[in-house]
């Protein structure tokens, strides 16, 4: 007996896990293989349930309480509350227990509600209907009931419920088209293939009759990698084995497009799908302010313990003599005499802890929670962050991180759908140096595509005309575009024009769609690919048919694509398009210099350029090319290398036709936003799953990279040429040498780094030659911008985690719009989702959601700035006012025999933080604006003033603490000296000689408390820069409320109180004129040092923020904040006013001056009273119009019109 089989069976059934195996076997349709095949061993896999929630019904209370009491403050107040319950303390347990219960309850409700929303989202996904083939017909079931091996029917525009292997398609060739926008950010269409042996099974019954198994690797998170094998069993033959790759795997979250339906088998389900493996677990995020609060809390806890220890030791030192230990007025009971001294000392220590515990007020945490919750509505209510197109504004999913928006140092952004709209626009094309633009302006009107003016005149010679025709045909044929008649997207029908159905294009590359649409506007229309024939409609409305023989697909190494077609006349043509660097070296004829000049000009303007070339093939050349391609495609070993060699042999001896210019339309104000973030001191990284060339072009267009930026490449292509070790240290030497020279030279180089996913994996792994992480961090730290391309979702999170864990521990922000961005959004300190076209996964899992990337500027530079300023003042002010509050209580113990006698009345102890001083600081933390919004937007560098938690550093904290100690000493000893001389009145009461005021400990405490309340409130008023009627009402109203409450509390006999120790105390104190004078004097003395310090600092070394405040006071007026007029891009056809047509104006740089582009302005002045228009103002240039385009001919690449 083979014991290995038995051992495998026992392991699979007992353990229930297959992770120990290198591969898994999937039985299609849950059917056993026919007799004689491999042994049938069923394996256990998870169901298709997705779980993104954090709590369950059963673990919510214990898990949430555990997380909340991990906070030092909550745990501390719980201990104090228990102490008050156990021993006899000077204050009631309610004073600590009630606020703690309020904070715990509110936080639990908020977190429970957020998790309930996640549960709802999970249920909506898990209960989605899915069609499964069972017993020869499709049956409807729910998504979470899917099992590995089930055959699923997916129809057009449906999302794949799990990871599937394609079996067959409604298309005869066994292909289907898929958009993976929610996975890798690419909204373009990709082609997937069924293996030849299963693509013929195209009905439910045929699929049910299929006997096959799939052997594949275990689940792993790489979206671009899949290794497997399908074994198809036939009746009389051995099973046919076919390889499976990533081109056969349909990933969960992707959407079926342009294909009626497909049959596919479930291969990975539930939390084992590649998308789920790329999700990060949702953890509790804590802001830097909260960490500072916890640190300050520990310091004040040490101070509290020190006070309690000092008072306990001094109490027993003072009571050492018997007459002080047990005076005649305070005899102890027998039980108290018999208690050990250690127990009594410990009880006294706890009593002192409770007496002084107000130095760490629970009300601060209540106020902070309220400030965060209420303050988050300012983002939601911001009308400038409302998008009319979406009909939605910004959303706040968690309010715990508001202040973190003001501390961001690194911004990690997705590209597609975040920086760009993923909407390419054809700008122009150049044929033999002659430029064609899709829109022409004549007689003040933009010519439409329906115009009948002939664009390509017959006047040029035959050579030029032939090249024009070949160029336009090349762009209509050299692509992988599919034609679709109609499609509904977001409720809008595409492909309809004026009520009639028209065709539109879809492709795996938006560049190709833009080029084909551009040709359509210039007179040549690609119609369809039918029966391997490509049909185009030429300018004469004649249909031309070309047989498509071979497609030489684009790849990032060759950077070009080719097709071999056969014309109706039997001529073989090879059309090629690609990057200029890959086309020009293979050109043997054509007007290279003129085309190269135009390409360089377009590249300077940030346009994406492609060159177009062709080659005529003789029948022998074609047969030779056919042989090379067939042999390479049939190779099982080194197929990619052999294909590359075949492509290299075929793509040669080109005739250059021309070039194209396409603009990847950035989101509105994306470049301005990135520029502002750079000025604010943030480093911007672009993390994308897109190709390097596409991503780099976007980085240039968005001004992440500039013309002067020296690009450093850390890519797979370069590491294949050199070892990773050599490349890393060469880059390190380059940037470090430049940094050492930057102090000697004014013109220091600006570096930008490009790294791809494969190289990043190698960098993050520690190899035998050393750990490259630190070298990579050192290089990237010295680069102004970094582009990471071909990133898997989990790699995005790894990059963010790597930067978070670096020695500076910077605050990170991640922003994206697709499910592929969720991992980095969850990993970063702050995650922002964009409500884009790629679903709402990112917005749902983020901390904040905004409609467009441009809104990030205001969210950080304005809202983030304000949030941090406000909460930093709130935290420091709360500690300050409680030092002022409790330190006199500590000093008072030296004058009352350390008897734990409170200095203040119980009502004052309870209401000080709840009523008398809470509302002013809460309102300040909601509405304070130390500088105006316009100033913050206009000068992003002010953001640097608050980064790195500058307002909550230890020097600032110590200043506030020392200021509180100084004020407390002034309060206590000022009032003490006021009561220095006392005499007895005729009725036995004690009266002060210098104030003629009744003297007692409650009067003394009330005087100290009155000075305290007025001082801390006026201190906050002095710190307020933005005054509104609400500020006045709350600040002066709080002081008035204190006075009125004290009058009522001491002026009425309350029947529910068994003692009236405060009766008439406050009114008697105010009846003394010297008391009024002393109150005013003590308040002035207390505030004077802070005022002097601020005046001197502003005069001698003002911060940029203080200078901005001074500028605002000196210059107030609408003219000061008027922005510069906007400039339009080249060849847009916008009119700046009614009499001026701008065909091209260069964009302005950050200083408002045009950048030195090698071009001239193309302007046409139209007189108001009429006169020659553009058509007659061209001068010596020849302008030919047709359709919606024009061409201008000139001796060089620059022309003034």
TrEMBL record:
Active site location: 414
UniProt-recorded Gene Ontology molecular function terms: ATP binding; ATP hydrolysis activity; ATPase-coupled intramembrane lipid transporter activity; magnesium ion binding
Reactions accelerated catalytically: ATP + H2O + phospholipidSide 1 = ADP + phosphate + phospholipidSide 2
Signal sequence segment: none
Subcellular location(s) per record: Endomembrane system; Membrane
Residues in P-type ATPase A domain copies: 129-192
Cofactor(s) demanded: Mg(2+)
Superkingdom in the source lineage: Eukaryota
InterPro entries per the UniProt record, alphabetical: ATPase_P-typ_cyto_dom_N, ATPase_P-typ_P_site, ATPase_P-typ_TM_dom_sf, ATPase_P-typ_transduc_dom_A_sf, ATPase_P-type_domA, HAD-like_sf, HAD_sf, P-type_ATPase_IV
Official protein name in the record: Phospholipid-transporting ATPase
Gene: ATP11A
């Amino acid at each position: 007996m083979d014991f290995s089989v038995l051992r495998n069976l026992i392991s699979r059934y007992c353990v229930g896990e297959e992770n120990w195996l290198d591969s898994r076997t999937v039985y299609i349709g849950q059917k056993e293989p026919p007799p004689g095949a491999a042994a049938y061993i069923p394996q256990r896999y998870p169901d298709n349930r997705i779980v993104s929630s954090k709590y369950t019904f059963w673990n919510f209370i214990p898990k949430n309480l555990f997380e909340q009491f991990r906070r030092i403050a909550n745990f501390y107040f719980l201990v104090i509350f228990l102490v008050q319950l156990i021993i006899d303390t000077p204050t009631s347990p309610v004073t600590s227990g009630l606020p703690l219960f309020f904070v715990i309850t509110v936080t639990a409700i908020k977190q429970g509600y957020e998790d309930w929303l996640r549960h709802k989202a999970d249920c909506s996904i898990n209960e989605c209907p899915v069609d499964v083939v069972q017993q020869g017909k499709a049956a409807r079931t729910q998504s979470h009931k899917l099992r590995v091996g089930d055959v699923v029917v997916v129809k057009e525009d449906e999302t794949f419920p799990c990871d599937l292997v394609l079996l067959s398609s409604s298309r005869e060739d066994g292909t289907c088209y898929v958009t993976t926008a929610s996975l890798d950010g690419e909204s373009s269409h990709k082609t997937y293939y069924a293996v030849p042996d299963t693509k013929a099974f195209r009905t439910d019954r045929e699929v049910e009759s299929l006997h096959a198994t799939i052997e594949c690797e275990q689940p792993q998170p790489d979206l671009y990698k899949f290794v497997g094998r399908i074994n198809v069993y036939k009746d009389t033959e051995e099973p046919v084995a076919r390889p499976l790759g990533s081109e056969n795997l349909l990933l969960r979250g992707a959407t079926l497009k342009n294909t009626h339906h497909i049959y596919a088998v479930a291969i990975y389900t539930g939390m084992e799908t590649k998308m789920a493996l790329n999700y990060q677990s949702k953890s509790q995020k804590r802001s830097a302010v909260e960490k500072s609060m916890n640190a300050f809390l520990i310091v004040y806890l040490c101070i509290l313990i020190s006070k309690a220890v000092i008072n306990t030791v001094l109490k027993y030192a003072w009571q050492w003599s018997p007459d002080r230990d047990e005076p005649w007025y305070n005899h102890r009971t027998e039980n108290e005499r018999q208690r050990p001294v250690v127990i009594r000392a410990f009880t006294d220590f706890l009593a002192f802890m409770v007496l002084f515990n107000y130095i760490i007020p629970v009300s601060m945490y209540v106020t902070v929670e309220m400030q965060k919750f209420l303050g988050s509505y300012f983002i939601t209510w911001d009308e400038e962050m409302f998008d009319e197109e979406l009909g939605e504004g910004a959303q706040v999913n968690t309010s715990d991180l508001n202040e973190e928006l003001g501390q961001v140092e690194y911004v990690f952004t997705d590209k597609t759908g975040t920086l760009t709209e993923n909407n390419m626009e054809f700008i122009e094309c150049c044929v033999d140096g002659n430029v064609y633009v899709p829109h022409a302006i004549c007689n003040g009107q933009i010519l439409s595509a329906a115009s009948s003016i002939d664009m390509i005149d017959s006047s040029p010679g035959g050579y030029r005309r032939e090249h024009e025709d070949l160029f336009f045909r090349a762009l209509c044929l050299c692509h992988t575009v599919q034609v679709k008649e109609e499609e509904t997207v977001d409720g809008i029908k595409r492909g309809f024009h004026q009520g009639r159905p028209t065709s539109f294009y879809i492709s795996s590359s938006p560049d190709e769609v833009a080029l084909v649409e551009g040709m359509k506007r210039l007179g040549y229309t690609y119609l369809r690919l039918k029966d391997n024939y490509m049909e185009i409609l030429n300018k004469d409305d004649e249909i031309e048919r070309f047989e498509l023989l071979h497609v030489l697909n684009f790849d990032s190494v060759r950077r070009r694509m080719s097709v071999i077609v056969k014309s109706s006349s039997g001529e073989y043509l090879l059309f090629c398009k690609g990057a200029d660097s890959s086309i020009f070296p293979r050109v043997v004829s054509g007007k290279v210099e003129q085309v190269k000049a135009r390409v360089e000009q377009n590249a300077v303007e940030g346009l994406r350029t492609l060159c177009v070339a062709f080659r005529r093939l003789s029948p022998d050349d074609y047969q030779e090319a056919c042989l090379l391609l067939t042999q390479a495609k049939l190779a099982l070993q080194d197929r990619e290398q052999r294909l590359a060699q075949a492509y290299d042999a075929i793509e040669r001896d080109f005739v250059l036709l021309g070039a194209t210019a396409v603009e990847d339309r950035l989101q509105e104000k994306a470049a301005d936003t990135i520029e502002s973030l750079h000025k604010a001191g943030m480093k911007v990284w672009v993390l994308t799953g897109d190709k390097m060339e596409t991503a780099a072009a976007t980085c240039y267009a968005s001004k992440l990279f500039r013309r002067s930026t020296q690009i450093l490449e850390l890519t797979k292509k370069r590491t294949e040429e050199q070892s990773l070790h050599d490349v890393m240290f060469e880059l390190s030497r380059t940037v470090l040498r430049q940094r050492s020279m930057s102090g000697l030279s004014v013109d220091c180089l600006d570096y930008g780094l490009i790294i791809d996913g494969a190289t990043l994996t190698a960098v993050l792994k520690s190899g035998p030659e050393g750990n490259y992480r630190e070298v990579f961090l050192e290089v990237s730290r010295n680069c102004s911008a970094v582009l990471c391309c071909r990133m898997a979702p989990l790699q995005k999170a790894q990059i963010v985690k790597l930067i978070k864990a670096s020695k500076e521990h910077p605050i990170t922000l991640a922003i994206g719009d697709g499910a592929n961005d969720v991992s980095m959004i969850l990993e970063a300190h702050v995650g922002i989702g964009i409500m884009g076209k790629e679903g709402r996964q990112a917005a749902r899992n983020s901390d904040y959601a905004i409609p467009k990337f441009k809104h990030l500027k205001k969210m950080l530079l304005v809202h983030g700035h304000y949030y941090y300023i406000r909460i930093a003042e709130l935290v420091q002010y709360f500690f300050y006012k409680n030092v002022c509050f409790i330190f006199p209580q500590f000093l008072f113990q030296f004058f009352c025999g350390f008897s734990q006698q409170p200095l203040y009345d119980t009502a004052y102890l309870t209401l000080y933080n709840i009523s008398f001083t809470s509302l002013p600081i809460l309102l300040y933390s909601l509405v304070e604006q130390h500088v105006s919004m316009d100033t913050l937007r206009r000068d992003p560098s002010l953001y640097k003033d608050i980064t790195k938690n500058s307002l909550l550093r230890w020097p600032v904290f110590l200043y506030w603490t020392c200021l509180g100690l100084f004020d407390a000493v002034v309060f206590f000893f000022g009032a003490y000296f006021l009561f220095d001389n006392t005499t007895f009145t005729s009725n036995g009461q004690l009266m002060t000689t210098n104030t003629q005021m009744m003297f007692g400990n409650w009067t003394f405490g009330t005087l100290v408390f009155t000075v305290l309340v007025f001082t801390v409130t006026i201190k906050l008023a002095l710190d307020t820069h933005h005054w509104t009627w609400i500020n006045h009402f709350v600040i002066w109203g709080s002081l008035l409320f204190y006075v009125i409450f004290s009058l009522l509390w001491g002026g009425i006999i309350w029947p529910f109180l068994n003692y009236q120790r405060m009766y008439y105390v406050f009114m008697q104190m105010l009846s003394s004129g010297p008391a009024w004078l002393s109150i005013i004097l003590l308040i002035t003395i207390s505030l004077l040092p802070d005022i002097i310090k601020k005046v001197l600092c502003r005069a001698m070394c003002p911060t940029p923020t203080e200078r901005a405040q001074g500028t605002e006071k000196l210059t107030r007026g609408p003219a000061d904040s008027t922005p510069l007029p906007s400039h339009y891009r080249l060849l847009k056809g916008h009119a700046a006013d009614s009499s001026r047509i701008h065909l091209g104006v260069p964009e302005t740089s950050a200083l408002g001056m045009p950048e030195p582009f090698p071009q001239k302005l193309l302007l046409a002045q139209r007189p108001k009273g009429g006169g020659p228009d553009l058509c007659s103002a061209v001068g010596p240039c020849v302008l030919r119009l047709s359709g919606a385009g024009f061409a201008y001919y000139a001796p060089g690449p620059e022309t003034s019109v």
